User: What shape does this take?
Amino acid sequence: MDKIWIAFAAALAIGLPAIATAWAQSKIGSAGAGSLAEKPELSGTVIILVAIPETMVILGFVVAVIILLGG
Amino acid sequence: MSKVEIVGPRQLLGETLSLVRQKGDLHIEPSAVGFVDDIHKQKVHSLLPDEKALFEKIFLEEFEAKLNNLFTCLPVEMIRESFLAPRPIIDTVSRTLDRHLALCRSLFEKREAIQQDLLELSGYKNFLATVSTLLDKIQLTPDLDYIGITLKDEKSVDILRNSLACLADASCELLTVPAGDGALVGLIAATKDTSEVIRSFLSQKQVPEITFPESLQYMAFAAKVEYLQKKIQENEAALQAVEADLKKFTHRWGPMYKAALDWVREQLSIIQASAFSFETAMCFFIYGWMPAEKVASLSAGLQKNFAGSVVLEEIEIRAEDLERVPVILQNPQYFKPFENFTRLLPLPSYTSFDPTPFIGIFFPLFFGLILGDAGYGLIIFLLSSLSTRFARKKQLFQDAIKILKVCSLYAMIFGFLYGEFWGDFGHTVLGMKPVFIDRRKSILPMLYFAMAIGLAHVTLGLAMGIVSALRRHTKKEALAKLLNIIFIFLIVALIITFVGFFPELMTRPLVISILLLCPVLLFTGGLLAPLELLKNIGNIISYARIMAIGLTSVLLANVANQLSGLTGDIILGLIVGGIIHLIGIIIGVFSSSIHSLRLHYVEFFDKFIELGGRKYRPFSSIKNKETDASIPKAESKQQKKLHESPSQSS
Assistant: This one.
């Protein structure tokens, strides 16, 4: 039973940040595409803005790995 | 970069600008701010053009517009360099230009009209070519009416023939012949009293009838066919003649007019640059920036041409000038392709660092760390080497290939270190063993290793930030960055102590050190300093992606090997394995590049690069060369304009 809870916790630890990252990137991505249509020189800034929320899912991944292997 | 001032007598301004343009090293500053002291501000003012200069500018602009219109009419061809010097021939050119422009425009309009006619007739071309074979077969009589149709396939021929038999009994006949495009061209011969019934039937059944131009409605069918065939031939001959005339004109007069256009553009750019010059009652001043190593060359050129009348002087760059100094990216050959990544961001300011060398060193390293497969690296290297032949003309493509080659070498090196060759294929078949770490099994050690790389990279960024802050004389900022480094190491040491690698006795001194340094951090970095520290720690954890994406890459490769083994057939196994490995390579290249770049843009550059530099734009003839190359580009727009209003384009 413990194993199930550990796996469930790890899945939640990576799943929820993944959903949050996807939602944030969708919003930033659509806004960024709009900005690029008007100002193509902002491409670097837009890449950075789109990339920022990815940290959430990486943090989630680290926590999931620690739950699965470190616990 | 050097801050320079060129001074000379007013009458030599044009010649000086011409020489400066020829050298092509000076970025002319349109503002005198930072160049003229407050005491002399009253005496120095912007150079105002006199009446003669204004008339010259208007004449040259009109002349350039006419020449552009002329090139719009001419075919896009490589024009040789003129053997004549442009200045002496300008008067002759200005006399002949109007006549030649009118001639070329009339030829151009004629060509447009013929092309339009041919476009309209092209719809009939296929039909006419096919139907002429049918005309030979039948006896054309004036008592019969002929209807031309196109049919999709053989099946519809029988259906139509049956329908026509019911409709007009024996008073009509359908003949068909296959056309070149796979359809069928048909000809219905019917008596005049039944032809209208057949037409309405065809229209009802949506069988497309070939309709001839209205002007030919009173002609017999055969005459219409003959007339249109003749007209197409005539138009094609006329088009060839007009194009030959235009080509001949281009060969004969093109070099002269191109030389004139270059000269006019040069004169206009000099006039434009003179608007950025300054004057006193006697002298002119040109202010600007240029690479320090080029100063001596321009100075010597001025000395040689003007015998000391015009001089160049270097001025001291003050602290308030630093924001205005233009920036140029200059890197050794190896780093040049990586400048494309730098250009995605705004330019760094003059006091900051050029990020290109850092990308050139760390981007392939991270790429190799993430992909880390000798087999994949080998395939990428071979593919990029093969693509070199196709990338000769496009600089961006060439750069991408160079970057891929370097990255693939790193992927191979790390592949051998991880013991990976197409996933576990190298281990199981070739007997490869991990030299450094087995990514598939040592997940936690790999995670720690990725974060250790992050720690080193972020610390390097912060250290560079200290240098950058010291360069700007912002000591407080430098101290805040130094404290960030100390804090990060203290926190890392504390974590290691908790894990058990360091003795537990160290916990207390570490906690006390952190608590003692907290007020200093708040003092140097302000209230947001703790947030900045948390951000830096988050940045280090972000490097865990090196391990995470690498793990997915190796697992996908293993899945490919397992699936190809499950097929139980060598050929099928090779196909399945090959396809999945190919997908793995594509995803591997894409994700490794994106994430390596992201680690630079977000985690690394943020620590020390200050963006917002001004681009170095030297006053040079290179710009004109670029504009010349764009003549065909400009043509399409102007052709459109000319097409819309041919009489107004002069």
